[in-house]
Amino acid sequence: MIRSFIKPFTLACTLTVFTIFFPPVITISAEMPGTESISGKIVEAMNAAGYTYVNLSTANGPLWVALPQTALKVGDEISCKPGMEMKDFYSNSFNRTFASIIFSEGVIEGEPGNPHASALVPAATSQEDSFEAAVESEKQAPSATQIQPQLASAGSMGAIAPFVEITVEKAEGENAFTVGDLFDKAEELNGQTIRVRGKVVKYNANIMGKNWLHIQDGTGDPMKNTHDLVITTSQEIGSPSVLTLEGKLVADKDFGAGYSYDVIIENGSIVE
Questions:
Q1: pLDDT per residue over 54-66, tens digit each?
Q2: What is the CA 240 to chain-centroid distance, rounded?
């Protein structure tokens, strides 16, 4: 009688153990890190949550890679350290889902872009750390509709503000343009005084003797970083607001040390 009682009890315990430990295996969504570096030409580059997202044209086709924020630009040929692959990764900052993206520790030393690596994100100690840090940053990042003005560096790619869902009426005047227009006509307007109206989405005070504004009006393409316009001014800006400003448009402005702009408005002044 004792033996017949113990056997069923032991079997029940064994089944309970399998029931507890089996399900977590099914929920894993990240692939193990690769062992080979990732090389290719940048066809898209965006910054968010302390990370740079690059779409690389590789020998095996297009591939998205996220790495600690680095000054990179379209056309750069880079090699990235291997990393963890995440499938169907949703980015809060860009409000989009990446079918597949590699979270890399960064550009391999000596490659283009590496000398300008941002100090905003400390280097990860392992591929798993890099992956977890990136995911956590995205979780904490505000969505595109929640962005608030903030202090940041005046660097080009490193300081582009995420796209804000707004509609701002174009300024009046013969020299008035939308933000998107200024990027589209940068070469034509280079050196000319222009007028633009937009909402201040980022304000950087007293950098290189100037105050730096980032304005948006709802035009431009966030995938090409033509939605966010930088304006330097000696005037102080109070609470974030919609402003009309005039200033000289400068195309392809390079301050050195990785700080460059496709379009920047210098010596801006508020006209209303």
A1: 999 998 899 999 8
A2: 22
List % helix, strand, coil for the chain (3-state, nearest 5): 20, 40, 40
**Smallest Cα–Cα separation from 212: which of 203, 225, 220?**
203
Looking up tokens 């090409």 gives 224
CA distance 102 to 110: 21
CA distances from 157 to 14, 59, 99, 266 (A): 57, 26, 24, 18
- Dmax (CA) for the chain in angstroms is 101
| Helix or strand (DSSP H, E) at 140 | helix 127-140
Which domains does the chain carry?
30-140 (2.40.50), 157-270 (2.40.50.140)
Distance CA 180, CA 228 (A): 9
User: How many Cα atoms occupy the beta-carbon half-sphere of 133 within 13 Å?
Assistant: 22
pLDDT 10s digits, 167-207: 999 999 999 999 999 999 999 999 999 999 999 988 877 77
The tokens 């970083």 sit on which residue?
A: 225
| CA-closest candidate to residue 200, choices 158, 157, 229, 234 | 229
The answer to whether the beta carbons of residues 91 and 98 sit under 8 Å apart is yes
For 171-179, the CB contacts below 8 A with 24+ separation are 171/195, 171/196, 171/197, 171/244, 175/246, 178/217, 178/219, 178/220, 179/215, 179/216, 179/217, 179/219, 179/220, 179/226, 179/227, 179/228, 179/229
